């Protein structure tokens, strides 16, 4: 004899399958929401890190720009000092050329005074 299931026996299994299908759907929705939230958090973290990197790069650029400006100012001042020294050296060389005893090792009092005047004049 074959056992056939009666319609009343199929209903509990159908209800069980219905509950399982509903539970699976709910779990799938929860998984999707959780995954989306996690992905959004990851993207927000990446955006935050990128913004920090951009700010750091901007600060580095600003510091380098300021350093270049300071170097330019120092170079200008050094060029002025070098020009002033060249003028003093030229004046000293022309003065030495006028000395009768330019090959001697000692300088007289007026010679020393003239040298002081050349080096202290700005």
Shape: rod-shaped
Residues in helices, as a percent range: over 70%
Distance between the termini: 129 Å
Low-confidence stretches: none
Overall strand count = 0
List keywords for this structure.
122 residues; mainly alpha; 2 helices; 85% helix; rod-shaped
Produce the secondary structure layout.
Layout: H1 7-98, H2 109-120
How would you describe this protein?
It is a single chain. The chain has 122 residues and is mainly α. The protein is built from two helices and no strands. The longest helix is centred in the middle third of the chain and has 92 residues. 0% of the residues are buried. The model has no long low-confidence stretch (mean pLDDT 84).
In short:
By secondary structure, this protein is an all-alpha fold. Helices cover 85% and strands 0% of the residues. The mean pLDDT is 84.
């Amino acid at each position: 004899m074959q056992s056939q299931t009666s319609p009343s026996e199929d209903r509990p299994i159908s209800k069980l399958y219905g509950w399982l299908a509903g539970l699976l759907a709910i779990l799938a929705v929860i998984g999707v929401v959780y995954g989306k939230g996690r992905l959004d958090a990851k993207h927000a973290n990446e955006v935050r890190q990128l913004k920090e990197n951009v700010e750091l790069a901007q600060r580095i650029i600003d510091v380098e720009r300021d350093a270049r400006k300071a170097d330019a100012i120092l170079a200008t001042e050094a060029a002025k000092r070098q020009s002033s020294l060249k003028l003093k050296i030229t004046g000293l060389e022309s003065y030495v050329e006028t000395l009768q005893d330019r090959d001697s090792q000692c300088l007289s009092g007026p010679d020393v005074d003239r040298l002081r005047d050349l080096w202290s004049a700005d």
